[in-house]
Amino acid sequence: MNSPVSTPLRPVIIGAGPAGVRAAVTLAAAGLRPILIDEAARPGGQIYRQPPAGMTRPPEALYGFEAAKARAIHTALAPYAGQIEHRTDTLVWNIERGALDLMHRTADGQPVSTVLPYDSLILATGATDRILPLPGWTRPGVYTLGGAQIALKAQGCGIGQRVVFAGTGPLLYLIAYQYAKAGATVAAVLDTAPFANRIRALPGLLNCPDTLLKGLYYTAWLTLHGVPLHSGVILREVAGPEGAVSALHWRDSHGQDRETACDGIGLGYGLRSETQLADLAGCSFSFNDLHRVWLPDRDAAGRTSVTGVYVAGDGAGIAGADAAEAAGERAALALLQDRGLSVDTARITVLDRRIARFRRFSAALWTAFPVPAGWAQDLPDSMTLCRCEEITVGTLRRTVQADAPTELNRLKALSRIGMGRCQGRMCGVAAAEVLAHETGRPVSAIARLRPQPPIKPLPAATIPADTAGEATP
Amino acid sequence: MSLLVRYAEQSRPPLRFFLDGQPQTALSGDTLLTAILTCANRLRQSEFTGENRAGFCLMGACQDCWVQVRRGNGPVERLRACSTLLEDGMSLSTSPAAPPVMTGDLP
Amino acid sequence: MTRHLRADVVIVGGGIVGGSAALFLRQAGASVILMERDRPGSRASGVNYGGVRRQGRPPEHLPLSQRAHALWASLESLIGEDGEYVRSGHLKLARSATDMASLEAYAARVENFGLGLRLLDAADLRRLYPMVGDSAVGGSLCPEDGHANPRLVSPAFSRAAAAAGATILDQSPVSDVRITTEGFHITSAQADVTVSAPVMINCAGAWAGELAARMGETLPIAVIHPLMAVTEPLPHFLDVSIGVEGGGIYGRQVERGNFVFGGGRGFAHPKAGAATDSTPPDYARPERHAALRLLAQGTGLFPALQGCTIIRSWSGVEAETPDHAPIIGPSRIHPGLFHACGFSGAGFQIGPAVGAVLADLVTTGRSVTPLDAFRPDRFSSPA
């Protein structure tokens, strides 16, 4: 399927967040003509998500301290408009034998699928919240932390008037700050990580003192404005009348059961890389003990086990937006090198050093905000774990008793966990923790869910481009 | 009753749409999700338990916000509410579709 | 130290056939050890479409299929769960007058087998199955055919066999086979075990040809990868399993509302590492063009699917024979060896009966069910 080396295809980048945009710009600056594919209409990814046209708040209001970086990413493609083909509103639903399957809708709404062969591919697929469910988490009013932030950033909306942010990770404090600034009442910030972890992580966090300072600023601001911050908590249950949220039940670090009245909850435990496409591209994976998930194998530059396929940004392991920008550029430079083109090696040294520093910082963040130990221990049988197929913890436990599955795909086959619309994006981490706990095996020993195309729902009415009278490039 | 609360960007031009047959107003630039949840307390109902759902991740990952949409006299299609912008005159439904047709008994 | 186990019968392959054979052999009093390369029911038996269909099978296959039909009726008492089995009816559609004529001819040919087929003309179809699009001009309904959930049914056969006293060795791929005057000695290096038995059953699915070749016997088996897809859950609109004369697509709506449909082929998942051997792949993947063709066929047959989404597609690893009929019966060269493989994408319904027939053959040397159409020696030069 690949063309001869003498006439390489246009490099393809998936994801127009900080990593993908920097990769595209780097390739364009070197004279290449990359194709940049993204599901959204405008560049920025989720972290620098742009509101739709017609909204008026300036970047300073949307991205705070990060406004300049956001603006830079938003405007980076424009100078290369003739060189970078930015395919917006386009879903990559499959990768198969050296080609991508793309779906977009024509002006009259007809979904059309196009085959795009590649010989160089940079996957900058980003991340979504790492979710550990609690009873009641499917109620309207409970959103991911990232979702709560996007409502505010991209739509000027909040997920409630009196909101609790719960789980763990630095995003808790940032989003609580943003909500409070926007005029919402932040009823509490409930962090499952003990405060002592943050002290222990301090040396590592000093790798990025600016970022650490910002985090401290948000925390101080929240405290100053009377927002209750609690560490070392256990989240118990989302309560309320049917179909609504009225309170979050939790246990404080002294073992005291508490209840905080609220009408919206933002939930998240750090981020989780989107790796389905790397899997379909055939990349080998290894279990990462720090992140407690499987990640594509890569070298420092982002080269995967598959020649010509690179990973960059949070999709290759969570390290944040600044690291993503550096990694996107670094992967692009690796691609150029692999094509035999000359690159600025001094720049590579700078980037490698920067990426290493971000990774040390990010590693310290996992120490500061770890997945709560023993989370899978005391879950009630009745709790829904898979929100697509509505599979409960009890069903998983019964399946484990009946069949003794030792890996996640067997559990999926027998229980439907991860078989629904999201293919395990929301429940996969939690299901792995439950299976590991129930079978007494480490999470690293129970494999990962095999993704199946389409990696996101595909309209049944989708027709191939040649049928639609469109040229396949 | 609404689920989402507007905190900013409230001076955009209005858009009209139908939600479960009732005329409603949203703002230009709203996603389907924002349009629905600023005037209702659910986006959809679970196929299995009938429980109300209102989306979750808002970034196209959880797939918990697919709703039924009709543009003009076009066919009913399913669109992801968090990543589709509202168009003037759209009809949105938060209920599962009526069965396409019922099956019959043999004579 | 390698474990050494003995039994009356060693079964290689833990699909629906192996699980069922183990169960029936235990019921007949034989000691049984089943060796499975991964987990029971994890390959073709567990990922197929789930059709439990007699209609459309050649007349010479129907006695076996009818025996299976009776076993499916008592599935729950047999394996301890209902496996979502429903006798929904199987409706085979004709898209042309020629196809309708061929459905009529089939109905006449199998009249004496008691399938209870009912031929439907275009008007019947519109009245009874209005969800079917205009491309169908008629059909044939087999009211007692149906469908079940292969993910649940196939592993349950091995579980039932284990409950009946069979030893199930999973994650035990065969690494060595020795044949002596005492019988068969099957080793799995991975599981560090050797099983010896005077009788062996080869029901290793796509791997059966390779296993037979180790014993010097050629089975004409090709590996195929049927393609399937599933929609999001939809309101109930279809209560029969659908096939089409001439093939191309089949579909059913499961109780939870998803429409499962298949047609076309996937491709072998590239093996990890340096495997350049000719063994079948562990997994298969859907193929893009076939998948999009399948969508077009599905929405063409059921216009109501136009507005919905596909949430997953998949493929499997299955064995096919030149005449699309399975191979069931004694080896041509090794007394005590029986083959049951090559189900060509249609083994799920007959699986339980194949196990019963194998138990017949092993314990009595013959079966009441005619098996001539499945003889392993039928591919040899004509007599």
What is the helix tally of chain C?
10
Count of extended strands of chain C: 24
Helix count of chain A equals 13
Strand content of chain A: 15-25%
**What is the residue-averaged pLDDT of chain A?**
95
Structural class of chain C: alpha/beta
CATH architecture of the largest domain in chain A: 3-Layer(bba) Sandwich
Total count of domains of chain A? 3
| Low-pLDDT ranges of chain C | none
Secondary structure class of chain A reads: alpha/beta
**In one word, what is the shape of chain A?**
globular
- Percent of residues in helices of chain A comes to 25-40%
- The CATH class of the largest domain in chain A is identified as Alpha Beta
List its traits.
B: 107 residues; Ubiquitin-like (UB roll); 5-stranded mixed β-sheet; two-stranded antiparallel sheet; disordered C terminus; C: alpha/beta; 6-stranded mixed β-sheet; 4-stranded mixed β-sheet; 27% helix
Write a compact overview of the structure shown.
Chain A contains 13 helices and 25 strands. With 473 residues, chain A is an alpha/beta fold. Chain A folds into three domains: 188 residues, FAD/NAD(P)-binding domain (3-Layer(bba) Sandwich), CATH 3.50.50; 139 residues, FAD/NAD(P)-binding domain, CATH 3.50.50.60; 71 residues, BFD-like [2Fe-2S]-binding domain (Arc Repressor Mutant, subunit A, Orthogonal Bundle), CATH 1.10.10.1100.
Describe the structure.
The complex is a heterotrimer of chains A (473), B (107) and C (383). Chain A is α/β, with parallel strands linked by helices. Chain A contains 13 helices and 25 strands. Chain A folds into 3 domains: 12-128 and 272-342, FAD/NAD(P)-binding domain (3-Layer(bba) Sandwich); 131-269, FAD/NAD(P)-binding domain; 375-445, Arc Repressor Mutant, subunit A (Orthogonal Bundle). In chain A, strands 3-2-1-7-21 form a 5-stranded parallel beta sheet, covered by helices on one side. In chain A, strands 9-17-11-12-13 form a 5-stranded parallel beta sheet. In chain A, strands 4-5-6-25 form a 4-stranded mixed beta sheet, with no helix packed on it. Chain A starts with 11 loop residues before the first strand and ends in a 9-residue tail after the last strand. In chain A, 56% of the residues are buried. Chain B is mainly beta and 107 residues long. Chain B has one domain: Ubiquitin-like (UB roll), CATH 3.10.20. Chain B has a 5-stranded mixed beta sheet. In chain B, strands 4-5 form a two-stranded antiparallel ribbon. In chain B, a hairpin with a 6-residue loop joins strand 4 (44-45) and strand 5 (52-53). The relative contact order of chain B is 0.23. By secondary structure, chain C is an alpha/beta fold. Chain C has helices at 16-27, 44-47, 62-73, 75-79, 97-109, 122-128, 150-163, 208-214, 288-301, 351-364, and strands at residues 3-6, 9-12, 32-35, 51-52, 90-94, 118-120, 138-142, 146-147, 167-169, 176-180, 183-188, 193-197, 199-202, 222-224, 226-233, 241-244, 250-253, 258-265, 267-268, 284-285, 309-315, 318-320, 327-330, 337-341. In chain C, the strands form 7 sheets. Chain C has a 6-stranded mixed beta sheet, with helices on both faces. The model of chain C has no long low-confidence stretch (mean pLDDT 94). Chains in contact: A-B, A-C, B-C. The interface between A and B is large, with 57 and 47 residues.
